[in-house]
C-alpha cells in the first residue's frame, strides 16, 4: 500500500508540473492580424496564396479572391516585386524557354505576371469589399515599403527571401506583424532569423515550416520540424506553408501544432504556371478548412477527465468493487475478500482496489454486494 501511495504521489507531482506548463502556455502572446487572433484556443488562420496564379490578369485575381472567401480562408495573399531590386540585369535578360514562360526573357516573363501599384490597390479594395484580409509577400525593400504604406494587416516574407537579411532587418523594425516561411534554410539559419527579430524587440511575428519543392514529395515534408520550432521558439506562433499535393499533410500539420496554414489556391490545376499543380482548387481549400475545424474540436485540451458523453457507458458497464464472499462488520479487508464487477449500485471504483485492501468493514456484506465509500474505515 505504501508503494502504491508513493507512486500516486509521483503522479500528482507530474500532474502539477503539467498544470504549471499549461499555465505558462496560457501566457504566451497571441498574434493579432486584423480582427483575427492566432494562438492556442483560437481557430487556425488560413492564408490562400494566390501568388501569381492570376496569370497577370486582374479579373482572374478577383475571381481567386472570391474563391478564397467562399472557401473560408481568412486572408488572400499576392506577391509584390520590384524586378530591378530583386534580380540582376543578367538574370532578367536571360532567355526563358520554359513551358510556363510568359515572355522571351525571364524579365519579360516576370513583368507579365507583376501587377502595378494601382492594380494592387484595386485588388486590396476589392478584397475589403469581400470582407477578406489582403496582403502580399514583400520580395525586396521597395516592395516592403509599398506594402507598409498601403496598411496591410501583415507582411509575408517568402522562403526565397528568408536569407535576405537587409529585408528582414527592415521588416523587424516595423510595427506590422511579420510571417516568414523557412524553406531552403537550415535550423541554424532559422535561429539567426529569430535572433534578428529579438534584437529589435519584435514579438509579433510567426515562423512557418516550409519545403520549397513544387510539389513537395511526402518524404521531404518533415512535419516534425513543427514540433522542433514549437520547442525552440515557444513564445511565437508556428505555422506551415505547404506545397504538397492534396490536403492531408496540411491537415496533419495542425495536429502537430501549426496555427497558420498557407496553401496556394487556383481555379485550374492544369493552367500554365509552375504553382498550379501544387495548388488547391476552391473546393479542396474548403474541404481542408472544414476538416481542420473538426479536428480542432476533437483535439480538445490536455486534461484527461471523465466526460459527460461517457456516462451512458459507465452506467451500463462501469466496474465497481464488490464482496467476494459474505463479510462481517469489523473485518479487516484482504485482497481475496474483494472482486471487481459490473454491479448495481455503483460502489467504490475498481481503480481504487488497492486503497480498499486493509480497510475495516463497518457493516455486514453479502457476496456480490457493492462496497460503498461509507461502508469502510480507511487505514
CATH fold descriptor of the largest domain: TIM Barrel
Q: Tell me the strand percentage band.
A: 15-25%
Give helix % range.
Answer: 25-40%
Q: How many helices in DSSP terms?
A: 14
Number of domains: 2
Classified by CATH, the class of the largest domain is Alpha Beta
Contiguous low-pLDDT stretches (5 residues minimum) are: 1-11, 20-26
What is the end-to-end distance? 10 Å
Major sheet size, sense and barrel closure: 8 strands, parallel
Task: Give the name of the CATH superfamily of the largest domain.
Answer: Aldolase class I
Strand order of the largest sheet: 5-4-3-10-9-8-7-6
Radius of gyration: 29 Å
CATH architecture of the largest domain: Alpha-Beta Barrel
Write down the overall mean pLDDT: 93
Secondary-structure-based class equals alpha/beta
Overall spatial form: elongated
Order of helices and strands: HEEEHEHHHHEHEHEHEHEHEHHEEHEE
Strand elements, count: 14
Organism: Cryptolaemus montrouzieri
InterPro entries: AFP_Neu5c_C_sf, Aldolase_TIM, PseI-like, PseI/NeuA/B-like_N, SAF, SAF_AFP_Neu5Ac, SAF_PseI/NeuA/NeuB
Domain AFP-like: 320-379
Protein name: AFP-like domain-containing protein
Amino acid at each position: 500500500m505504501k508503494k502504491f501511495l508513493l507512486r500516486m504521489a509521483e503522479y500528482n507531482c507530474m500532474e502539477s508540473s503539467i498544470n504549471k506548463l499549461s499555465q505558462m502556455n496560457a501566457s504566451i502572446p497571441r498574434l493579432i492580424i486584423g480582427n483575427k487572433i492566432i494562438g492556442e484556443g483560437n481557430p487556425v488562420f488560413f492564408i490562400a496564396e494566390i501568388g501569381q496564379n492570376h496569370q497577370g490578369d486582374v479579373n482572374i485575381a478577383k475571381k481567386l479572391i472570391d474563391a478564397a472567401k467562399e472557401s473560408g480562408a481568412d486572408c488572400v495573399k499576392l506577391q509584390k516585386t520590384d524586378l530591378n531590386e530583386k534580380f540582376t540585369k543578367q538574370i532578367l535578360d536571360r532567355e526563358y524557354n520554359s513551358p510556363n514562360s510568359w515572355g522571351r526573357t525571364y524579365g519579360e516573363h516576370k513583368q507579365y505576371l507583376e501587377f502595378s501599384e494601382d492594380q494592387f490597390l484595386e485588388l486590396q479594395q476589392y478584397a475589403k469589399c469581400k470582407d477578406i484580409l489582403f496582403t502580399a509577400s514583400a520580395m525586396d525593400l521597395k516592395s516592403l515599403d509599398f506594402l507598409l504604406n498601403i496598411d496591410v494587416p501583415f507582411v509575408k516574407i517568402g522562403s526565397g527571401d528568408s536569407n535576405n537579411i537587409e529585408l528582414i532587418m527592415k521588416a523587424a523594425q516595423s510595427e506590422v506583424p511579420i510571417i516568414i516561411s523557412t524553406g531552403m534554410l537550415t535550423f541554424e539559419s532559422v535561429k539567426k532569423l529569430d535572433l534578428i527579430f529579438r534584437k529589435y524587440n519584435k514579438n509579433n511575428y510567426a515562423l512557418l515550416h516550409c519545403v520549397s519543392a513544387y510539389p513537395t514529395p511526402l518524404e521531404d515534408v518533415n512535419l516534425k520540424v513543427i514540433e522542433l520550432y514549437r520547442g525552440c521558439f515557444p513564445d511565437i506562433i508556428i505555422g506551415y506553408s505547404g506545397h504538397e499535393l492534396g490536403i492531408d499533410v496540411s491537415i496533419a500539420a495542425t495536429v502537430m501544432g501549426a496555427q497558420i496554414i498557407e496553401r496556394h489556391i487556383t481555379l485550374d490545376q492544369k493552367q500554365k504556371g509552375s504553382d498550379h499543380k501544387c495548388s488547391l482548387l476552391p473546393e479542396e481549400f474548403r474541404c481542408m478548412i472544414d476538416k481542420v475545424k473538426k479536428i480542432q474540436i476533437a483535439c480538445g485540451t490536455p486534461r484527461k477527465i471523465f466526460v459527460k458523453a461517457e456516462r451512458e457507458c459507465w452506467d451500463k458497464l462501469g466496474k465497481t468493487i464488490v464482496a467476494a464472499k459474505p463479510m462481517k462488520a469489523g473485518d479487516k479487508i484482504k485482497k481475496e475478500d474483494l472482486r471487481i464487477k459490473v454491479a448495481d449500485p455503483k460502489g467504490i471504483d475498481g481503480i481504487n482496489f488497492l486503497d480498499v485492501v486493509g480497510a475495516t468493514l463497518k457493516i455486514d456484506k453479502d457476496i456480490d454486494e457493492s462496497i460503498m465509500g461509507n461502508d469502510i474505515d480507511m487505514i
